[in-house]
Each structure stands twice: as structure tokens, then as C-alpha cells.
Amino acid sequence: MEYLLLLIAFLCGFACKFVSLPPLIGYLVAGFILNALGFSSNETLVSIANLGITVMLFTIGLKLNIKDLIKREIWFASIAHSLVWILVCASILFLLSFTTIGYFTELSFAQMALIGFAFSFSSTVCVVKILEESGETRTRHGKVAIGILVMQDIFAVLFLVFATGKVPSVFAIGLFALIPLAPLLKKLLFEAGHGELLPLCGFVFALGGYHLFELVGVKGDLGALIFGILLAGNSKASELSKSLLSFKDIFLIGFFLSIGLTALPDMQMTLIALLLTLIIPIKFILFFSLFTQLRLRARTSYLASLVMSNYSEFGLIVAAVAVSANMISDQWLVIIAMSVAFSFVISSILYKNSHNQYQSFKDALRRYQKTKALPEDEYPSFKHVDVMVIGMGRVGKGAFNALSESLNDAVCGMDADVDKIKKLNESGLNAIVGDGENIDLWENIDISNLKLVLLALPSIEDSSNVTQQLRNANFSGKIAAIARYEDEVKPLLQNGVDEVFNFFTDAGVGFAQESKAILEQQKT
């Protein structure tokens, strides 16, 4: 049975990838196919799905700066959006109760508000997966989206406490002792090294946080998130996150399958789920309006709103608790599950081309942004430079440091990660905060003297998007990019990159050249 689950998940995921759709859509479809074939969820699959969510929240915490949550655009937007959305959604359900559709006519206003609350969440799994695949978790809109997701997770925890009547024990106060223990946790992480002990250390922390919080009556997933936050900022946090990436992706397949295996809907349930999916644009409009009113730039507001325009797995958890407490009927759990699945498909498809969408509508969208931007959204300025390196990961930083030795301030580094740029600036290096895929950035800084741009980005999609934005901004210099695999070279060249360096091949050539230089020195 387990092999059949994997086989169908693989085939559906591969089919979606073949038509340029995210594989997660295929996993959702696989769940419904398996359901139709008579399969049902089991304890093993549920455990895998829960493990995937736990590890995912832990890795979110590893990348999270707690200071981001206390920003007004995060906490105020989260609270305001939830309240307005619940009112709007309940009102729509109230209007639908005047129809002859039984599922709506049987609802009380309290139940309508509860369903609106379940739909108020955006999917942590879907949003983080989309942002990671596009390399945008550290961008301004990525941080805004993740910050709001964390706030929504907190709302869900509070609901579960009140709905289930499960009150944290008095020992929950002792959890505050974790704060002074953070240095010890970071020390343990550092001593784990770089091998198989590192991801094992990650699982110990993630699951340890989960069970510790459960032990004192607090939702375990919050514990995994908190443990990740305690380790954030450590030099090994990024490496740990990458070491857990493949594990997390495999476990989350179980989560997507479990949604499809929740129940097999009838035609009327499917139509109602589709109808409720059609109101998602209202969620987008609410987010966009709030973000622009809070002085976020139009592009940040658009991308963050778009990626958040979906329903959430936490909505399913809320609905499941409500069903168990006899607050709503179990049919609504199926309808909400279907709506969540449909919203994943729509969100994944729409965001795939989001940067080009903004390029098309940017003039209309900019009319809604405030004249005075937030301080951290001010466009950077830099001295006259000849070379810019975009992406301050290991490869980009290595290239940047090497070029800085000979070109000094004539080379400039760029990355969306504020912390990375801050460390480079403190070392006296010329680097700026910026998102290379942001056409607004290129239109508001002077690149007329720039001769060469090096793209050291994690995916060819990122490099292709940056290349397109540079060309749209009339950049006439040369663009070079790195590729991890041979089959990535041709697509980059076709998308306008002038020179592509195969990371592994050219690293080997460089190693050989350095070795030959050592031999020559020995001869002399």
C-alpha cells in the first residue's frame, strides 16, 4: 500500500512538473485519486504529515527575526485582515443562506463566523513552499508574508486553547527559561559539525520543542517554531535549514496526500468549495489595501498579497476541532478541505508568473502606494561601480570578496537579506540591500555606468527573472550567471544571460589551475 501511495504521488507530481506546475498540486490530486480508489488515511501517513509541518515550522523559525513580528505592517495587518475577513466571509455566507442550498441554510451566524475564521488563515505550507522554490523567503515581501503567517499561527493556537478547553499547565511559565538557554542550544548546534549529525540535531530540536510544549499543555507546533527562533541568527542556522530541506519536502508529501484522503466529496460539496474559492480575490484586495495603507511599496504589497491569497491547512485543523466540539457539521470539514486544495492550485499557478504580472500592471498599482515609504523600503544608493554581484550566498560572497581585492569599491554586492548586507558593511565592504527581481529598484537607481552583473542565485528561474528585469530597465552591460547542472546552461543563455559558468565544472577547472600554480612554485 505504501508503495502505491508513493507511486501515484510521484506520477501526479511528475505530470504537474511536466506542464510547468508545482509538484505539490500533483500531490493534492494524488490524494483525491487514492480516495476515489478506496484508500483512506492511516496513522503512518498522519504521522508523516505532522512531522512535515513540525519540521517546516522549525525551519521557518530558523530564518525568522523576532523583531519583524513587532513591526506595524505585520501585527496590525494580521489583526485587521482577520477581523475584516471574518465579517466579509460571514456576510457572504449569510446572503447565501437565502438560497435553497441546504449547507448554507442550516448555518447559524456563529457558525458562519467560525467558517470565516477557518478561511481567514493563509497556508503556511503552500506560501513557504512557493517562496522557497522561487528563492524569495528573505525578500521584503517574503518576510512580510512569513511574519503574518506566524501571527496567524498564534491566532490558531489561541483558538485551539479556548475551543478545546485545554488550558496550559502552570508549568508552561517555565518555558520562558528557554530564552537564557538559547546560547547553549546554539553551542550544541555549532558542535554538530557538517555531516549527518547536523540534520539529526535539527530533528532533535524540532521534535524536542514540539513534545516539550505539548507536555505543558501548549500546541506542539508552536514549540517547534519557538526552538527555530531561538537558533535563528546562528552561523549554522542557514546550513541546518538547507540540510533539513529534502527531509521536509518528503514529509510534506504526506500532508498533501492526507488532504485528499480526508473525505470524498459529492458534486454539491465540490461546487460549494469552488464557489468559496471564488471569493479569494477579496482576500487579496484586503491584504493589498492594508499593506499600501501601512506604507509598503506597491510591488511588495502586490507580491505579499498574491502569495497569501489562499486558504490554509490550519483552517482544516480549526474546522476539525470545531467538528469534534459539535460546532459545525462534518460535511463542512470536507468542503473546507476541497476549498483549501483548490486555493493551493490557484495560488501556485498565479504566483508562478507574478513578477511579469507586476511588470504589466505596475503603473496602475503604484497609484495606490503612499508617497513616503517606510525607512527600510527606501531605494539604496551606491558609488560609481563597474561590477555588481547579486546573491551573497557562498558562491556570490566568494566571487565578491575576490573581486573586491582587485577592484575595491568598483564592485558592489547585493542581497535581499538585510543581515548579510549589514555584516558586509561592518567589514567595510561595498554592499546594498536589494531584490534583483524588483523592476522598481532598477528604475530608481543609476546603473548607467554598470558594465557587468554577476548572478550568483540559487535557481535559474531567479537568474532569468533578474536578467529580464535588467533588460526591461535598459541595462546594456554584460550579464553572467552560475548554473549547478549542465541542463541549466542553455535555458539561461536563451533568457538573455551572456555567459554561464557551470558551478561544478568550473570549480574543478579552478582547482586544477590552482594546483598547477603550486607545482610551478615548487619548481622555482
Structure report:
There is one protein chain. With 524 residues, this protein is mostly helical. It has two domains: 325 residues, Na+/H+ antiporter like fold (Up-down Bundle); 145 residues, NAD(P)-binding Rossmann-like Domain (Rossmann fold), CATH 3.40.50.720. A six-stranded parallel beta sheet has the order 3-2-1-4-5-6, sandwiched between helices. The longest helix has 25 residues.
Return the CATH architecture of the largest domain.
Up-down Bundle
The proportion of residues forming helix, as a percent range, comes to 55-70%
* CA-based shape: globular
Which spans of ≥5 residues are poorly predicted at pLDDT below 50?
none
Question: How many domain units?
Answer: 2
Radius of gyration from the CA trace? Answer: 24 Å
**H/I helix tally:** 25
- Sheet-strand content, in percent, reads under 5%
Q: Largest beta sheet: what is the strand line-up?
A: 3-2-1-4-5-6
Write down the overall mean pLDDT: 84
Report the CATH C-level class of the largest domain: Mainly Alpha
Report the end-to-end length measured between terminal Cα atoms.
68 Å
**β-strand number:** 6
CATH topology term of the largest domain: Na+/H+ antiporter like fold
Task: Specify the biggest β-sheet.
Answer: 6 strands, parallel
Based on secondary structure, the structural category is: mainly alpha
